[in-house]
Design goal:
By secondary structure, this protein is of the alpha/beta class. Helices cover 29% and strands 24% of the residues. A hairpin with a 2-residue loop joins strand 9 and strand 10 (263-269). Helix 4 runs parallel beside helix 6 (190-202) and helix 5 (161-174) packs across helix 6. The radius of gyration is 17 Å and the shape is globular.
Length: 270
């Protein structure tokens, strides 16, 4: 499998935006609609499931099959690491779970919603309220302060600017950056920039946090601190799914899913 399908920022989203841009930028192509109510429970469905894939496949042009009939459930409050080599399909799994891409086939349920049939605007609304994203590349606006980067991440929610800034300040304090709120990304260390990105993800208090290689651009000390922070934040009630190629990181999670060649080849709980 071609490894290029493991990079969110380089693969166009279904509406023409890159995956990261679709998750973090103000809507310029597809405006979000009001957050939809959760679907009634399906027969046999578990009410405490935050994320569910059933027989999901994803095929890219050229016959590249990134996911092959994947089925997995993540319960509310679970902390899950998805581990595998480059090209294993783990980042495609995350983009489908995060509604940044649509599956070629199969069903996807996110926060109680069967998302396959939703419009792009409805998906944007769901992401705005229920999902926080943390990417390897930070995706911060260099011209903005840490406070404005976090507040801008909540534009999709429709909250007033004053409320967004209040929530952004509280989130930055939560990740230990109360003293850096007026600093721009170029004035921050790599670890601090990732903390800003985490603050942006949690400021709206989402049900789900999806993290794609969040330590990939950090030194080992900063990486350990970021993983510890994500564990701590998830312990407060969020559902955390983290993508990594590092087995040492995945082993620190109570559940780790192993992927290879677009398939789940292992699913272990501590």
């Amino acid at each position: 499998m071609n490894g290029e399908h493991e990079q969110i920022a380089e693969r166009p989203d279904h509406d023409g935006l890159t995956g990261a841009a679709a998750a973090l930028s103000p809507p310029s192509v597809v405006p979000p609609t009001r957050q939809p109510a959760a679907d009634p429970p399906r027969p046999g469905a578990e009410p405490d499931v935050a994320l569910a894939l059933s027989e999901v496949s994803k095929e890219y042009p050229g016959g590249i099959l990134a996911l092959r009939a994947v089925s997995v459930e993540v319960r509310i409050g679970e902390q899950v690491a998805v581990v595998g080599p480059s090209g294993s399909g783990k980042t495609t799994l995350l983009t489908v779970l995060g509604t940044l891409e649509r599956p070629t086939s199969g069903s996807v349920v996110v926060a109680g919603r069967d998302v396959v049939g939703l419009t792009d605007g409805e998906l944007a609304g769901l992401r705005a309220h229920e999902i926080g994203f943390v990417f390897q590349g930070f995706h911060l606006q260099e011209s903005m302060t840490a406070l404005d980067n976090v507040a801008n991440g909540m534009l999709y929610t429709g909250s007033p600017a004053r409320e967004r800034r209040r929530a952004a300040r509280a989130a930055l304090e939560r990740v230990g950056l109360a003293h850096r709120v007026t600093h721009r990304p170029t004035e921050l260390s790599g670890g601090e920039r990732q903390r800003v990105a985490i603050a942006r993800a949690i400021a709206k208090r989402p049900l789900i946090i999806l993290a794609d290689e969040p330590t990939g651009n950090l030194d080992s000390t900063s990486g350990r601190e970021v993983i510890a922070l994500l564990h701590e934040l998830a312990a407060e009630g969020a559902t955390l799914t983290l993508i990594t190629h590092d087995a040492a990181i995945s082993e620190r999670f109570p559940r780790h899913i192993q992927m290879r060649d677009g398939e789940v080849v292992g699913d272990e709980r501590a």
